[in-house]
């Protein structure tokens, strides 16, 4: 859903709650905190003002203040966006959002399907308190659906399914029931940054990063490759810092890299996890958004034998694959009944409406529509949008990564940073925003190298193109939404000292 | 908890200790040896042990100090000796728990000693002070009692708590059980089904399928503000900016507890109260609820049963503060659940002023606000007040679950004048979000005040009134005292006369007996009621089901009457042995006679 357009989000994340407070005093917390408040002071007067963190004027508890401060920071970029959102008719010069990973390509198909009469069903049991794991009819449908689309060798079972109102809730619940306060999950970076908040907000669980490089070295065959050695190293490091690691989070297809793990790699990571008795949370929320068939995506549920089935937990949702992030539907599949029950115990707080549960069951049941209408069309549109954007990038001579899965391209703008720092990355991000384009910068994904950006391409062509945009100078050969990309180096070449000032 | 149970202070020390130790062990280790202890958390274990320990230490010193009664010196020494042994044993157990936790790595849940390792519950003369269990053998016992390695301690705790609270509701309901325990409004399903199928309900817009704004879609927040302005009779239009919508009132409460309190801090709450609060404050936010105990007896200060007064609030606050607790707020439910009481504007004002005086937030849950079915009674929402004593510390919760009978919709709203609080709570909206499609339906539902005023509410209130009339007439004919109120979906009934002795243990047995007859009620203990014997009976169900339920209800009570008659005929010595261990655990607390007439019969 959304990433953090603020450089300094790490400190507050690991700083929620009592454990985090202690951390601030420890050696590695110190400088972060200092840096944090300074930056905030300079850049965002009024927003997340550290003065709010003092108890004098506030009605909130200290964790309440921390949560609010943190979220205000996180939403800064989005606030600017929401105040000046692009709209074809009402605000044609508004900001275009290429930062939020949403699939806006298939609304026509979805609205037609969701308006059909089978979706309008209302019956008493849907209006009353449900089984907190989710209605049985839905869990049965999910089990069948996942068996089919994940190509599971055996039929998956409804009792291993738990239904929640979105992936955020699921991360939160899993973190809470698998970890104690202050414990951690390993996660390879760059990764979908919002997970940081999901596991922290209620659970007070942190993430231990497995930093990956863009440079291909040693036995690696591609940029940002995850290997067992890197996992081992990160685990050792976490232990040496006294952080107890309880599991690994893998996102497959990967966000923001647009990459997939091969079955062999997946197997290796799972064996690694088993060796260290770690849980593995596999987030497969983009599983049906693989639009290049050559990619050869395999779900973890398709593996013949899971090394440690009791510690392997799979997530899926309709937010991405069915372009319905506003519907709030996610599901957990785990063979571990203790984990399923514990997550279900929290579902009173993360439940979704019975009517929506019914609609989801109808949708997932309709294989004809999914296979013959929705998926082919969705993939074709994703592919077209991807081709369009990647060709533009090639024309601009901008390197990027994207292998044909997900909604995004991981763009390398390092050459546009005068200095390879995250401050410069932030300035460039701001420059885009000033030019009415919202992107996500690499720091929000905890990328180790400054200068990477995520560009979401799953949007309508007219928004991608914006040919008639009046605010942009008429340069017919260039697509204005990509125009700022080209503008940046020119600007630096003439040595402008105020990068924040908009040239327009 | 333990204080309630062991109020039998006037009893001989020996007997007291004996019952105490038995109850302690059977309480904390309900699972036979060898069986997997999945549901136990080391924290609850340790907490409970520490509480027991504290109490024993107190008793121990009382014993040591009291030198009167020289004749009983030997007995006195024995008691001291026994308590000493018990103290040692408890400490040893706690050390064991901690040790096994440390040695088995953080991920291994700390196992508990098996029951058979402590056969000598009495600590008789043979048991010496040195007779503490060998830690090593304890440990191997522990390993036998293996518990789930996959969950965190809090995960285990959450599962256990959840299962203890809800298994009856979920599992039993499908097997022909009639559920008069869950407060659900099943009276207007026909109206709602019809309304929700109307064409305005079905709308698929692009924004509804995309990530919602923090705190809820603006159109829904605007509608909620309008709705509350109208139905709460707010003196000025309420501000949509002050509304946060989440997927249920329990989510709102949970998020409020997170942002108003730090872990370990507390709210005051008058008892009996809706048990869901305890659940919601414990699960994520670890906020404690300090009960303000109310009594059913009418006295000089209590002009009606379970009256909440500022004095009682003051007293509870003082006591809690003396114990070092940090109290951040007061939780009120109005209309009250389970009592069905409605606070008068005057009393409400007094509570609010008390809170202001003591710098407390007030969370007011008005989820039953439209479920007042007697026209002669006016409900005054806190939002209707001309001026609130402390606007920035008053937070109102409302939802559609009860008033519209759509608990499966998952919708709850917060209204607070405090923008800072609204903003902090809305940070949780991604974890408690509502589907865009449902937000649209809710907006349509709340918008149509004509249908609500002309069709829905009159029908709903009439049906509530009729169901209430049916149930209360039955109760009267059975001579069962109850609180006769005209709001909410339930009656609070007193079955004390069917308990002998009048203990929570007996209350639980009676509850089980209802279950045996496929009838689900909620017992007073679940509402932290101080007096055993109270039950909440939900009547918002259709008549045929209610009739069957009341027949089962009568059967159980008739059966119980027979039992009690037989019991009274038998000489005390030959009391049945089988359930004796249960009874033993709870020394007689109050000698309330089953025949004792309650002062407040129906009609209040």
From TrEMBL, chain A:
It comes from the Eukaryota. GO terms for molecular function: identical protein binding; pyridoxal phosphate binding; transaminase activity. Residues 123-457 form the Aminotransferase class I/classII large domain. It holds the Pfam family Aminotran_1_2. Keywords: Pyridoxal phosphate. InterPro entries: Aminotransferase_I/II_large, Ethylene_sulfur-biosynth, PyrdxlP-dep_Trfase, PyrdxlP-dep_Trfase_major, PyrdxlP-dep_Trfase_small. GO terms for biological process: amino acid metabolic process. Belongs to the class-I pyridoxal-phosphate-dependent aminotransferase family. Does not catalyze the synthesis of 1-aminocyclopropane-1-carboxylate but is capable of catalyzing the deamination of L-vinylglycine. This is 1-aminocyclopropane-1-carboxylate synthase-like protein 1. It comes from Saimiri boliviensis boliviensis.
TrEMBL record, chain B:
SUPFAM superfamilies: PLP-dependent transferases. It comes from the Eukaryota. InterPro entries: Aminotransferase_I/II_large, Ethylene_sulfur-biosynth, PyrdxlP-dep_Trfase, PyrdxlP-dep_Trfase_major, PyrdxlP-dep_Trfase_small. Transmembrane segments: none annotated. GO terms for molecular function: pyridoxal phosphate binding; transaminase activity. Gene3D superfamilies: Aspartate Aminotransferase, domain 1, Type I PLP-dependent aspartate aminotransferase-like (Major domain). Keywords: Pyridoxal phosphate. GO terms for biological process: amino acid metabolic process. Residues 178-540 form the Aminotransferase class I/classII large domain. This is Aminotransferase class I/classII large domain-containing protein. It comes from Saimiri boliviensis boliviensis (Bolivian squirrel monkey). The lineage of its organism: Eukaryota, Metazoa, Chordata, Craniata, Vertebrata.
């Amino acid at each position: 859903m959304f990433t953090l357009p603020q450089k300094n989000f790490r400190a507050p994340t690991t700083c929620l709650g009592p454990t985090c407070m202690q951390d601030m005093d420890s050696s590695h917390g110190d400088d972060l905190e200092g840096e944090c408040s300074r930056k905030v002071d300079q850049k965002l007067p009024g927003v997340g003002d550290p003065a709010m963190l003092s108890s004098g004027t506030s009605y909130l508890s200290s964790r309440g203040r921390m949560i609010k401060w943190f979220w205000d920071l996180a939403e800064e970029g989005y606030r600017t966006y929401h105040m000046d959102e692009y709209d074809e008719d009402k605000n044609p010069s508004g900001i275009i959002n290429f930062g939020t990973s949403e699939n806006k390509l298939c609304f026509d198909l979805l609205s037609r399907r969701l308006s059909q009469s089978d979706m309008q069903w209302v019956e008493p049991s849907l209006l009353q308190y449900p089984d907190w794991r989710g209605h049985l009819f839905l869990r049965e449908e999910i089990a069948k659906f996942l068996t089919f689309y994940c190509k599971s060798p055996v039929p998956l079972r409804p009792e291993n399914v738990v239904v929640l109102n979105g992936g955020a809730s699921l991360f939160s619940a899993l973190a809470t029931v698998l970890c104690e306060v202050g414990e951690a999950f390993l996660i390879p970076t760059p990764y979908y940054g919002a997970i940081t908040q999901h596991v922290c907000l209620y659970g007070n669980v942190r993430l231990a990063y497995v930093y990956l490089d863009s440079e291909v070295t040693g036995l690696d065959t591609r940029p940002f490759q995850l290997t067992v050695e890197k996992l081992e190293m990160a685990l050792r490091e976490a232990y040496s810092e006294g952080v107890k690691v309880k599991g690994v989070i893998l996102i497959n297809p990967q966000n923001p890299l647009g990459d997939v793990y091969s079955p062999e790699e997946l197997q290796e990571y799972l064996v690694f996890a088993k060796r260290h008795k770690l849980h593995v949370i596999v987030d497969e929320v983009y599983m049906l958004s693989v639009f290049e068939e050559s990619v050869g995506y395999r779900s973890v549920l398709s593996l013949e034998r899971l090394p440690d089935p009791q510690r392997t937990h799979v997530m899926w949702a309709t937010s991405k694959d069915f372009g319905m992030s506003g519907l709030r539907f996610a599901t957990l599949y785990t063979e571990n009944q203790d984990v399923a029950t514990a997550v279900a115990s929290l579902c009173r707080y993360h439940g979704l409406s019975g009517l929506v549960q019914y609609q989801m069951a109808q949708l997932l049941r309709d294989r004809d529509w999914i296979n013959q209408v929705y998926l082919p069309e969705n993939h074709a549109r994703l592919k077209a949008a991807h081709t369009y954007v990647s060709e533009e990038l090639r024309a601009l001579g901008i390197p990027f990564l994207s292998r044909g899965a997900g909604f995004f391209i991981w763009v390398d703008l390092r050459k546009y940073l005068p200095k390879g720092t995250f401050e410069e990355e932030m300035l460039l991000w701001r420059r885009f925003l000033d030019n009415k384009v919202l992107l996500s910068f690499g720091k929000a994904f905890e990328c180790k190298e400054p200068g990477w950006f995520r560009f979401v391409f799953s949007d309508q062509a007219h928004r991608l193109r914006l040919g008639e945009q009046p605010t942009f100078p008429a340069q017919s050969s260039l697509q204005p939404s990509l125009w700022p990309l080209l503008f940046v180096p020119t600007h630096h070449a003439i040595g402008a000292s105020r990068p924040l000032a908009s040239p327009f | 908890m333990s204080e309630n149970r062991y109020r039998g202070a006037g009893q001989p020390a020996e007997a007291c200790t004996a019952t105490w130790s038995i109850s302690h062990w059977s309480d904390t280790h309900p699972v036979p040896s060898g069986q997997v202890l999945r549901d136990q958390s080391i924290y609850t274990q340790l907490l409970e042990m520490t509480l027991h320990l504290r109490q024993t230490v107190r008793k121990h010193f009382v014993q040591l100090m009291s030198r009167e009664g020289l004749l009983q010196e030997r007995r006195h020494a024995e008691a001291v000796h026994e308590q000493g042994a018990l103290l040692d044993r408890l400490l040893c157990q706690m050390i064991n728990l901690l040790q096994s936790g440390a040695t088995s790595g953080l991920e291994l849940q700390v196992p508990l000693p098996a029951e058979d390792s402590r056969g000598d519950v009495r600590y008789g003369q043979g048991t010496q002070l040195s007779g503490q269990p060998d830690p090593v053998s304890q440990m191997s016992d522990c390993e036998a009692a293996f518990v789930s390695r996959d969950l965190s301690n809090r995960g285990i705790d959450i599962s256990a708590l959840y299962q203890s609270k809800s298994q009856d509701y979920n599992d039993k309901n499908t097997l022909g059980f009639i559920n008069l325990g869950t407060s659900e409004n099943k009276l207007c399903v026909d109206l709602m089904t019809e309304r929700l199928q109307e064409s305005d309900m079905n709308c698929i817009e692009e924004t509804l399928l995309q990530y919602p704004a923090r705190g809820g879609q603006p159109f829904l927040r605007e509608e909620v503000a309008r709705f509350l302005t109208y139905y709460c009779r707010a003196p000025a239009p309420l501000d949509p900016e002050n509304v946060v919508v989440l997927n249920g009132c329990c989510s709102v409460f949970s998020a409020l507890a997170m942002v108003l309190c730090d872990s370990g801090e507390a709210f005051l709450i008058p008892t009996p109260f809706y048990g869901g609060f305890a659940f919601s404050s414990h699960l994520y936010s670890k906020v404690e609820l300090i009960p303000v105990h109310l009594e059913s007896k009418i006295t000089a200060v209590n002009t009606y049963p379970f009256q909440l007064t500022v004095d009682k609030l003051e007293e509870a606050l003082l006591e809690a503060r003396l114990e070092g607790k940090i109290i951040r707020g007061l939780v009120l439910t109005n209309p009250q659940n389970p009592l069905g009481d409605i606070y008068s504007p005057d009393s409400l004002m007094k509570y609010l002023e008390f809170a202001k005086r003591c710098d407390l937030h007030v969370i007011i849950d008005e989820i039953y606000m439209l479920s007042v079915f007697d026209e002669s009674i006016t409900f005054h929402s806190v939002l209707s007040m001309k001026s609130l004593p402390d606007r920035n510390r008053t937070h109102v919760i409302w939802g559609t679950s009860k008033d519209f009978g759509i608990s499966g919709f998952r919708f709850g709203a917060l209204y607070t004048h405090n923008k800072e609080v609204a903003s902090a709570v809305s940070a949780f909206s991604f974890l408690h979000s509502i589907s865009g499609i449902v937000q649209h339906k809710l907006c349509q539902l709340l918008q149509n005040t004509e249908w609500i005023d002309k069709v829905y509410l009159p029908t709903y209130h009439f049906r509530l009134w009729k169901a209430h009339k049916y149930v209360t007439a039955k109760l009267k004919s059975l001579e069962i005292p109850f609180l006769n109120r005209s709001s909410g979906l339930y009656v609070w009934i007193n079955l004390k006369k069917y308990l002998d002795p009048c203990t929570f243990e007996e209350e639980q047995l009676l509850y089980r007996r209802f279950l045996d007859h496929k009838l689900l009620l909620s017992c007073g203990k679940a509402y932290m009621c101080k007096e055993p014997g109270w039950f909440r009976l939900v009547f918002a169900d259709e008549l045929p089901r209610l009739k069957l339920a009341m027949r089962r209800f009568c059967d159980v009570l008739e059966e119980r009457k027979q039992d009690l008659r037989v019991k009274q005929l038998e000489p005390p010595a030959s009391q049945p042995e089988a359930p004796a261990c249960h009874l033993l655990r709870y020394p007689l607390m109050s000698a309330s006679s089953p025949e004792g007439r309650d002062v407040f019969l129906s009609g209040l």
